[in-house]
Amino acid sequence: MPNRLAREKSPYLLQHQNNPVDWYAWGDEAFEAARAQAKPVFLSVGYSTCHWCHVMEHESFEDEQIAALLNRHFVSIKVDREERPDVDRTYMAYVQASTGAGGWPMSVWLTPDGLPFLGGTYFPPENRYGRPGFPAVLQRIAHVWATERERIVEASEQVAADLAREAEVGAPSSDIAADALDSGFQVCRRLFDPRLGGFGQAPKFPRPAVLDFLLRYHARTRNAEALEMVVTTLRAMSRGGMNDQLGGGFHRYSVDEYWFVPHFEKMLYDQAQLARALTEAYLVTRYAPFAAEARRVLDYVMRDMTYSEGAFYSAEDADSVIDPAEPTKKGEGAFYIWSAAEIRAALGEEAAKLFMYRYGAEEHGNVQNDPHGEFEGRNILFSAYSPEETAHHFDLPLNEVAQSLAVSERRLLELRGDRVRPHLDDKVLTAWNGLMIGAFAVAAAALGSDTYLGAARRAASFIRKTMWNAETRTLLRRYRDGEAAIHGFLDDYAFLISGLLDLYQADFDPGHLDFAIALAERMRELFEDKEHGGFFTTAIENADPRALLRMKDDYDGAEPAGNSVAAIALLRIERLTGLLPFGDAGRKALRAFGARLRAQPFAIPEMLCAVDLALSPPRQIVIAGFRDEVATAALIGEVRKHFLPDTAILLVDDASREAIAKWNETAREWKPIDSQPAAFVCENFVCRLPVTEPAKLAGLVTEPRA
Length: 706
Hints:
single chain, alpha+beta, Glutaredoxin, five-stranded mixed sheet, four-stranded antiparallel sheet, 11% strand
């Protein structure tokens, strides 16, 4: 019989609806039950595409005896971290502080008032991997709760006080930490792997925020080493098994230092950030494979992660069915890996030889260290050799080899489509859609793609229609199965504003800018610390009554921090519109995090991007002309050839002039010259003489900055 989670919309919670555990969703009902029964709370936090969450469910939450222990001694709560990042961040802060590590599934024991007293991540069903068995842990906690409850409650109250102190950002700096840019670069140098790309050792995570910073540091300083770190990392990631060589898109991370063996889940936020990083790296280097790889990522998202009404889904699972005859038997990466026999049967002997050489497939499988036997006898595809190297190895014409490989890739992708696909987490998250809208918009402008522009527009339209209530000025976080719910967090506002600004600069529709400004005003009302600067993750008026902390999240990890993106977005609005209060709020946020920027710049590389923007002389490039004219398009196209992270780009024509003049009266003066479209380059509040020729505009855009 299904438990309470059957009433929920979250794919993760629904995965647990048939567990024998008497699960509650996060809310009053669960904590009232805990208080009424004088039981501690067992809080389990994860997400629907998490491999080890699936493992713990199968081993423990589906086990009748373990479920009986949980039901007898605890009130058990299941939380989807992607729906409720506020709950996740609060208790993750505790787990990391108390154990020195964190991750998912996250397991935390709380008092009936929600105060944590013990935490961890995955627990096996018996003593294993150097971890205590879950039943023994449950029995020990139940015993201590029964015999030493007062001590536990007293200790948990002290823990809550300590966490609140740790969450404080500290006194704001008197200035913006300009020196953090150089110190951040030096930390990147120390951690960079010059041979294999990336930063640090295995496991290796993409962390695109670091690449964002290095590209901007290169643009500011012309430091070749900063650019080389980006190029080496993106090339290595693209060649590795972490990149889906057949279908496009990147897996979550690599378990080894070579980017070879991935953790196979695919997250929307990774696709968005990496597609953007590849596009921006292409603009800087003109290295065509970066543009091609960005297209592969975006095409994958359009094909496999897009809702029929335009928004983007959240993730695809790491695990998938190994054999359709045994649908309950799953393995990590089963959807993506191939045996040599499967490749030969699909392609024929000669084509298989070329394909296997190109993609590093071996007769008995190419994974050497496979402790769990998940990849035994099968191959993770990676770019072992280029098509040119493959042609040279087999002494064949390149065009013949390239054609054979293209046919083989299409054939195997078709066959893979007949396999049981990994679970799709089909909820729509506003924050992650904001990132993806931005990626499609940036790529549309840089690569000249109307298809990508259409994808960005459709998603933005869905979010505005479905997740935003203009009357109450309320943005919601999650949509699924016909229901939009959960008040938006800082990430939702900041990421969506950023995506809309990118979209404006891709199609120059002032409506996107209007919406971004409305969201920015509301974001400041709900989240801004007016006294000290910066932004809280949650709004006071929507805060959970059980929330231990009101945090100012600043760590740019797998996703950029809301504070980092908010600061950049506010500074960009000021440059696009001339509305100074937004820029003031962005600069105040940077001063609020001044001490953190100086002490740990590598922890907040996206905020370093905000520092770079704040310290750059304000520049606008205004194209005045009819948007459908070839000459206007030529000027816009010239601007879009260049990586200009500190520049606001506007189009002023008869249709948009008054809309832009609402914020910037100068728009009425930006007009064509002698009936020719003209470009006005304005820096430090001074405009150069307008130019009408793309070559002259290129000279202004690329000349050294002050």
